[in-house]
Sequence to fold (246 residues):
Amino acid sequence: MGESPGQESGAPAYRRVLLKISGEALMGEAEFGISPQRLHYMAQELTDAYELGCQLGIVVGGGNIFRGVSQKAQHMDRVQADYMGMLATVMNSLALQDALEQKGLPVRVMTAIRIPEVAEPYIRRRALRHMEKGRLVIFAAGTGNPYFSTDTAAALRAQEIGAQALFKATKVDGIYEADPVSNPEAKKLEHLTYHEVLTRGLKVMDLTAISLASDNRLPVVVFDLLKPGNIRRALLGENIGSRVEA
Fold:
């Protein structure tokens, strides 16, 4: 542990990492909700990664259930819609916790909104203690405030727990200069600075999240969640996806 990314030794390149997973990743091929098959897949991927001995914090989005800026929420009060989105992240976190516990992993869900009958309240020192004891910690309910995305929550929690990197596991294999779906000729950008992401308007994470990562020199690694073994490879420091740093 503690070696620089890119090592070949088989030892983890990171001691502690914050992993951001989109809510949409839980849908599988469905239009909304949680796919049992995708949940099982993600639990297995995280189990394989956990065996490396790294300390893992996880933030799951809520877009598969409800998104505050979605078409369905356009005529709602934005604050009310965002709170509904936070509750959606709690549902996803509980589902992921259950899937991981079925694999035998120790997991705690901590929420930024107090729901003591459901999960622990987020307390930084308690979260650190859980991680030091080898427990996976899932941070739910975003930052607990409207107008802040789960990307921003991930960047914030990563700083609070002293993560050495922020992993964004997504549906594409990195950052592209344009949408690779609508433009198959779009070039993949493997190494970028925070400044390049901001000035080029690349949709890696929202601007607040990238700015927060930049201010604290937190490396952001973006990779394809749906390629088996990628979370483990990223933890080993292999050159996958795209990397954003100073």
Remarks:
- The chain has a mean pLDDT of 91.
- The chain has one domain: 16-245.
- Residues 16-245 form a domain with the Carbamate kinase fold (CATH 3.40.1160.10).
- The helical segments are 36-50, 78-102, 124-132, 150-160, 194-200, 207-215, 230-235.
